[in-house]
């Protein structure tokens, strides 16, 4: 009994990609799409949202008295 191979969309171009070890660049369809995505991260087009605390909240003033 063989299992069905899952298919995902390439995040860059939307091409269907088989999710299996033979798909060398998964989840991307090609090295080109993988490098385009890496370039977007390097150019800071993509960002991971973060909540920054104010500098005052990081230091406990009682600790230094």
Q: What's the layout of helices and strands?
A:
Layout: E1 7-9, E2 16-18, H1 31-42, H2 55-58
Antiparallel strand pairs: 1-2
* Topology as a string of helices (H) and strands (E): EEHH
How large is the radius of gyration?
21 Å
Oligomeric state of the chains in view: single chain
Strand order of the largest sheet: 1-2
Average pLDDT works out at 86
Low-confidence stretches: none
- Overall morphology: elongated
Strand content: 5-15%
Percent of residues in helices comes to 10-25%
The total count of helices amounts to: 2
Main sheet? 2 strands, antiparallel
Distance between the termini: 71 Å
Structural class category = alpha+beta
Would you write up a description of this structure?
This protein has 65 residues and is an alpha+beta fold. It has two helices and two strands, in the order ββαα. It has a two-stranded antiparallel sheet.
Key structural traits:
25% helix; alpha+beta; 2 helices; 65 residues; 2 strands; elongated; single chain; two-stranded antiparallel ribbon
Describe what is shown at a glance.
The chain contains two helices and two strands, in the order E-E-H-H. With 65 residues, the protein is an alpha+beta fold. Strands 1-2 form a two-stranded antiparallel sheet.
